[in-house]
Design a protein that fits this description.
The protein has about 120 residues and is an all-beta fold. The protein is built from no helices and eleven strands. About 35% of the residues are buried.
Length: about 120
């Protein structure tokens, strides 16, 4: 079992930056691929970014590529999402996810989820 707790959300103006953190419980964090998803009002949960457990390969949704960066610190059992040049359309609840497999874009393929943190970008 892995328990995930997100933090770092908030209100920011368009063009600004936020860094989300996701702290994981357990001693096997390094064995899990980690991902970030988001759900905007009235929309389905969508993939944002992921980082694999074995070699740290990273994957991004086209909508955030070049603006967001995912990174992990296995010593701190934490994964981060640095979000720069934020846009109003980035407004959503952001969720951290973990899974032992390599990588999936589909939310249904991820085993463990945090409760989410709200990110609001004002225009």
């Amino acid at each position: 079992q892995v328990q995930l707790v997100e933090s770092g959300g908030g209100l920011v103006q368009a063009g600004g930056s936020l860094r989300l953190s996701c702290a994981a419980s357990g001693r096997t964090f390094s064995s899990y691929s980690m991902g970030w998803f988001r759900r905007a009002p009235g929309k389905e949960r969508e993939f944002v970014a992921a980082i694999t457990w074995n070699n740290g390969d990273t994957y991004y949704a086209d909508s955030v590529k070049g603006r967001f960066t995912i990174a992990r610190d296995n010593a701190k059992n934490t994964v981060y999402l640095q979000m720069n040049r934020l846009k109003p359309e980035d407004t959503a609840v952001y969720y951290c996810a973990a899974d032992r497999s390599m990588f999936h874009r589909a939310a249904t393929s991820w085993s463990f989820w945090g409760q989410g943190t709200q990110v609001t970008v004002s225009s």
